[in-house]
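FYI - complex with zinc ion, inputs then prediction.
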Amino acid sequence: MLTLCLTHPICLQHAGPLEHPERPERLAAVLKLLDHGYFDEMGREEAPMGRREDILLAHTEEHLRLIEGTSPEDSMEMLDADTFMVPASFEAAMRAVGAATRAVDAVMLREVDNAFCAVRPPGHHAEGDRAMGFCLFNSIAIAAEYARETYGAERVAVVDFDVHHGNGTQNIFWSDADLYYGSTHQMPLFPGSGELSETGQGNIFNAPLRAGDGSEHFREAFDSRILPSLDAFEPDLVLISAGFDAHAADPLGSVELHEEDFAWATLKLMEIADRHADNRVISMMEGGYDIAALASSVGVHIQALMRGTGTGDIPNYEDL
Ligand SMILES: [Zn+2]
């Protein structure tokens, strides 16, 4: 069982306004944790640049031109109240897309069993024609479309356990019954979408949680709504929008999960990938704004992807 981790140093240069929660220290902490010997068996690659033609599988040409055209040379541009671009941002977003499509290549060509993309900016709020919620390009939706276009994947699923609803992925998948989107998220909360009644072509499965919900409600939502619908969809590739801001320590959400809940969800998704998708799983980092909780949660998530083949004890970020 080999897990590949894709990242790029430019993703640490995408730095917005002071006090902005989506900050470079998030990724720096994750990479510090992944330097621990436990993860020695994991494969590592630098993320290539994303290709324009791949971005256009999920976004309009106007959107790509707008992001490229907004890219500042020496200042900061705000695309909305909380979505920023600095000089490094365009390349960081392109590397996030490149990580996603390279992960698809590696998994579809059986070079590895699964992959984790340790990148930022995140992507799941970016709709086909607009950036929002810290997201410029929807890397995971691009990965899904790329897997179909390049490898003939017929049914691609995205499961999203970020505390925020992935309105962008839902938007891009809405009219296509061969793409599945399942999400647990807090409501009410940004971006406001994600009701049970939002079902697309019967391919969208929202499972909203309430502020204060913890492990029990989260697992119940997975067991009753996400996992049965995903199993029935019979995906030939399982993608995970892995946001860790449903952690109890997170400052942006009020769901009360802990590391073991993320490990549990990961293993459940891997069971379904085993059953239908020849084990093919790709996980993309989305949110998670408490630095220590994010790093430790990514650690157990990757431990699950590696099926416990790491060496020694799984590290805790606070002990590093
Ligand atoms: Zn989030």
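The domain at 3-319 is CATH 3.40.800.20 (Arginase; Chain A). The chain has nine helices and ten strands.
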